[in-house]
Amino acid sequence: MTDCIFCEIIKGATPTDKIYDGDNFLVIEDIAPVAPIHLLIIPKRHIESLLQLQESDIVLAGQMMKYTATLADKYNLSNKGYKVVINTGKDGGQIVPHLHYHFLGGKKISDK
Ligand code: AMP
Ligand code: ZN
Q1: 104 touches 34 (CB < 8 A)
Q2: Residue 58 belongs to a domain with what CATH number?
């Protein structure tokens, strides 16, 4: 996939510090954070959005969701909590067409 900023980061073409770099997904800091802790959990395979998620991606999607608890531990948010957001499509506010989970914490995040 060309012209995908997250694929460029995954390929290493756009140098970016990785919080976590696993076999199937990685975690980076959002370039324009809206919370004190704003991370992006990104699958290494280009999946456009939740709309394109296949049955065979369900384990990966679950592993990415479970990893939020590891991040909460790493950032001392387990007691305070955090929010996971998956923007999907135009009305969902998705700008980058490569599936990603926003991990938001460090303040009360009231938007649903
Ligand atoms: P979304 O609206 O869900 O598509 O969010 C895309 C997110 O990606 C936004 O919060 C951007 O700030 C973030 N973003 C875009 N480019 C980069 C980049 N090169 N590195 C880190 N985060 C990025
Ligand atoms: Zn991509």
Answers
A1: yes
A2: 3.30.428.10
Question: Among 78, 16, 71, which residue's Cα sits nearest to residue 39?
Answer: 71
pLDDT band at 2 (very low <50, low <70, confident <90, very high): low
**Residue 15 within a domain:** yes
Residues 36, 76 contacting (CB under 8 angstroms): no
pLDDT at 111: 77
Using the mean position of ligand 2's atoms as its centre, give its distance from the Cα of residue 37 in Å.
23
Q: Which two tokens stand for residue 58?
A: 């369900």
Nearest CA to ligand 1 atom 18: 31
**If DSSP codes are grouped into helix, strand and coil, which group holds residue 9?**
helix
Rounded to two decimals, what is the model's pTM? Answer: 0.97
Q: Which atom of ligand 1 is nearest to the CA of 86?
A: 3
The range of the structural domain enclosing residue 47 comes to: 5-105
Query: How do residues 40-91 score in pLDDT, each as one tens digit?
Result: 999 999 999 999 999 999 999 999 999 999 999 999 999 999 999 999 999 9
- Number of domain units in the chain: 1
